[in-house]
C-alpha cells in the first residue's frame, strides 16, 4: 500500500491544477462552515462578556413578575432597603421603543432603549467611555456607535420620549458602549422614572460587608415574597440567554453551510467522475502490471482524502477572512465588537467536513472509475463512451417527478408548508434522476437560436456540450439546485410583498399616515393638537382605541356608531358606555367591539390611546408644502413618523426585504460553488479534447473562435441550469402560496421579472468568466505538438 | 510553377547546451500540381518539416512560402485563415471530430469560415472518395479507411493550394492504404492538386512524382519518378547498414 500511496501522492502532485480545481468547491464549503463557527463563537463570547459586564456591580436583583397597581416598586425598594444585609437598593427601569431625535427634530430611526444610571456609584455597572455619566436631571449618555453614525457630540441637545409619551430635551454629557441594535440611552433615576410613568418592577441591591449574595437574595425573597437572584445566578441566566441567541444564529448560518457543502459534494463527485474517465488507460495500465482493483480504488480514495485535506486547510484560511468580514456586515444588525474566535473544535469540524465530504463524494465515482479491465490499456479508445441512462433513472425519475407534482398540486389550501416541502423534494429529485435525458434535450432546444446566431462555432459548442449527457447533467444539476433555492425564496417573498401595496392603499384614506416608529400603535395625544395648529394641513382624522372595563367591549374609531353582532344590539337600538347612550347605526364584522366617532370617544373616555392619524393637505396646498408642515408639526415627537402610501408599503415590507437580502446572499454561495463546477467541467473537457481542438486549429479555427466555442458551451450550460431552476422554483412557490390560501384570501404568484433577469444575467456573466481559464488553456496549446502526441 | 518553398529553414527545441536542432537549414522546393513525398529515418526531422511547411509550427529561422505568402511573417490569426482557406490536411489519426457526422466533418473548414459549400464540388468530391452513402454517419461508425477518406474529402473541399498528408496510411491495412494513396494520386492527376506527404512506407512513396530525403535535419537527396528500388538505394546510401 505504501507504494500505491506514493503513486497516489505523485498523481495528485502531477495533476496539481486539476486537484486545486476539485478542491475549490471544498475550500468554499469549508470556508463558510468554519467562518460561521468562528464568527458565532466570537459572537457568543462577546455577548456573554457583555451580560457579565452589565451585572458587574449588582449583587442581587429583585424582579417583581406580577405587576399589580398597588405594589409600587418604589415601595419595594424601600422594603428591600430595610432588610438586614442590604447596604443600598435602588429601583431601575429599562424602557424599549424609546423615541430619539436631534434638537432640530431630525428623527433617529431604530429600536432604541433607555436604561437607568443608579444614583449610588457602587450600584453602577455602566461607565462613560468619553465624557461623564449623567449626574443630574436633563443629562443623558448615549452609545458611541449611534453618536458616531448620527454625528452627535457631547454637548448636543437630544429629544427623547417614551413610546406614546411627550418628549423632553436632554443634554448629551458622555458616550458609552451599545447594548442592542438601536441606540442605548442612559439617564438618571428621576428622569427615567418620569419618562416611564409607572413604578419600576426591578430593584438592584448592593450587599453589605459579610453577607454573601446568595444568602441575601434568599433573605430578600423570604421577606418580600418577590423573586430575587444573586449576582452569579443573574450572570448565569443572562449568559444562557445570550448563548441561546448565538446558538440560534449559528444554527441558521450552518443550515446554509450544509447547503453549500452538499453543493460542493455534487461538484466533487462530478469532477472525480470526469478525471477518472480520463485516466482510464492509466488505471488499466496499473491493473495490467498487477495492481488489484481494491488497490486502485483505495489509491483514488486516498487521493480524495489528500485533496480534501488541502481544501480544508485552504478553506480554514478563507474562513478566517470571512469571519473577520462578517462583523462589518452584521454591524447593521447591532452586532458590534465581535472578534472571531478560532477554537480547536472549529479546526476539527472544518477538517472533518472537508475530508469527509470529499472522500464520500469520491466513493461512487472511484468504484465505477476503477472498474477498468486491464485490456483497456491496450485499446485505442480516444473518446469516452458515455454510459447510457439506466432503467432505474428512466422509471424512477418520471415517477418521482409526477408524484412530486401531484403532491405540490394537492397541497393547495392545506396550509401545511411541510407538504409543499415534501412535494418540492420529490419533484426536484425526480428531475435530477431524469436530468441525463432532460438536460441535453433542453440544451439542444435552447441552443438552437444561439446556433443560428453564432454559426459553426456555436453549433460545435452545442455538439460538445451534449456529447456526454451524464456529465452535462451533473454539471447543471448543482446549478439547478442552487437557483431553485434562491428562486423559491425570491418568488415567495416578492409574492408576499405585493399585497402590502394593496394593504397600504386600503388602509390609507388620506395622503399621509402618522404612526409610531415601533409599530406598536401608540402615539402621544398631543400629536393631534400639533397637527391642528398647522394651517397647511386639513383636519386630521385620529384613530383612538380603548377598552371599556364595565362592558368588556373594545372601543374603536369609526365614522359612525357601529357594533359587532355579538354585542347583541340591533340597528336602531342603543348602547350605553360610561353613562352615555349611542344609537347603533350599523353592524360590523368582528367580536365584542364597538365603533364610535373620534369626538364621542374623547368625550366619553378620559385617556383613549391614539394609535394613528391620517391627514390630507389643506385645500389648495401642494403635497410638498403639506409634507414640510407635517414634518414641522412632528419635529417635537421623536416616536411619530409620517408615511405617504409608497413609504408605508415599503415600511411594511422592510423586514421581508432585509430577510430576502440575507437569504439570497447566503444562498449565492451555493450558486457560486455550482459555477465552480461549470468551470471544472469545462477545464477537464478541454484537457480531454486537446487533440480535437488542435485539429480544429489546424483546419482553420482561429484562437478567438476557439474561445468563443468554449464560452458558448459555458453559456448554454449556465442558462439551461438557471432556466430549469427558475421553472422548478416557480412551481414550488406557486404550490407554497396556494397551500396557505385560506378563507378565500390567497397570495397570487408574482414573477419578479427584473430579479429573474438579473439572476440570468449574473449566471451568464459568471459562466463566461468561468470559461476564461479553460479557454486560455485550450488556446495556448501548440498545435503541432498535440497532433503528434499519443 | 513553385507551390511551396522553404529556404534556410531551421527549428531548434530548447536553448543553451540542451538545445536540439530538428531542422538545420533546409532548402527545398515543391512544384505545383505534383505529388511529393518526404522521407527520412526516425528523427530526421520530416514531421517537423511538414509542420513548419504547413504553418502548424513556427520555425526558428529561415522562411516558408506558400503561393505568394511568407508564413513566417504572418500573425497567428492570418496563418490560421491561410490554413483554413488554402491548405488541406490528412493526418495519421484524429483526423475527424467525433461529435460531427461525415458530412459535417468534410464541410468543417467552410463552416468555420461561414461560407456556403459549392454543392456541385461537394458532390464531386464525395463521389470521388466513395462516401455518398456514408455522409450521415459519425466517425465512430466508420472504418479506419472510411475515416481517412472523409479526411481526404475535407482536405479537398476548399480547393487548397497545398494538401499536407502526415503518414496518411500509417494506421490503415494495406488495402485501405492503397485506396487512400489512389485518392491522393487522383487529386493530383485529375484535379491538379499539389500534395506533400510525409511517409516511411516505400510503397506509399512510390505513388509520388518526387521524393525528398532528409537526414539529420538537412535536405539530403531527391528522386524524381521514384520506384521502390530507387528509394531503397537512396535510403541505403543515406543510412548505411553497419
Automatic annotation (TrEMBL), chain A:
Transmembrane segment boundaries: 20-39, 253-276, 296-326, 346-364, 395-413, 419-443, 472-492, 660-687, 708-736, 756-775
Superkingdom: Bacteria
Domain ABC3 transporter permease C-terminal: 255-370, 666-782
Alphabetical list of Pfam families matching this protein: FtsX, MacB_PCD
Localization per record: Cell membrane
Membrane protein topology class: Multi-pass membrane protein
Keywords in alphabetical order: Cell membrane, Membrane, Transmembrane, Transmembrane helix
Primary location group: membrane
Residue ranges constituting the MacB-like periplasmic core domain according to the UniProt record: 19-222
Similarity field: Belongs to the ABC-4 integral membrane protein family.
Name the record gives this protein: ABC transporter permease
Source organism (scientific name): Paractinoplanes lichenicola
Lineage: Bacteria, Bacillati, Actinomycetota, Actinomycetes, Micromonosporales
Automatic annotation (TrEMBL), chain B:
InterPro entries hit by this protein: AAA+_ATPase, ABC_transporter-like_ATP-bd, ABC_transporter-like_CS, ABC_transpr_LolD-like, MacB-like_ATP-bd, P-loop_NTPase
Pfam families found in the cross-reference section: ABC_tran (PF00005)
GO molecular function, one term: ATP binding
SUPFAM superfamilies in the record: P-loop containing nucleoside triphosphate hydrolases (SSF52540)
Positions of the ABC transporter domain: 4-241
Entry keyword set: ATP-binding, Nucleotide-binding, Transport
Highest taxon, organism lineage: Bacteria
Protein name: ABC transporter ATP-binding protein
Species of origin: Paractinoplanes lichenicola
